[in-house]
Predict the 3D structure of the following.
Amino acid sequence: MGKSDKVFVSNRKARRNYEILDTIEAGMVLLGTEVKSIRDGRASLAEAWCKIENQEIHLVDAHISHYSHGNLNNHDPLRPRKLLLHRKEISRLQKAVDQKGNTLIPLRLYLNHGKIKVEIGIARGKKLYDKRADIAERDTKRQLERTMKQY
């Protein structure tokens, strides 16, 4: 992520519930009212996921609210949105998803050189004991920083 990138929405639950193996940047096919709504920060990736069908990849269950100044031509908030990737990238993602336990999760929506992009992560679900280990590691790191700050 460069200095000029502005993050509109991030999926905070993704890193807690999934182990992110790899990430990739994709463009999105959006309507005008969707772009304006995202720029207002009125989008959510909490329940979103990606599916691959017929060599195309779609973002499913991403909620982009109606644009407040829109008219009758306002968009459907939960419609599937096509993601723009090269064929080689889609086939690489397909191979990763075919492995047992892997899925595609959107991590964040951001602005890159005037275009709204989505960062997709190849993810594997964490077990409860993995989450507990992460929490314990974070607590020990915090405690260590506190002691270093005192001395």
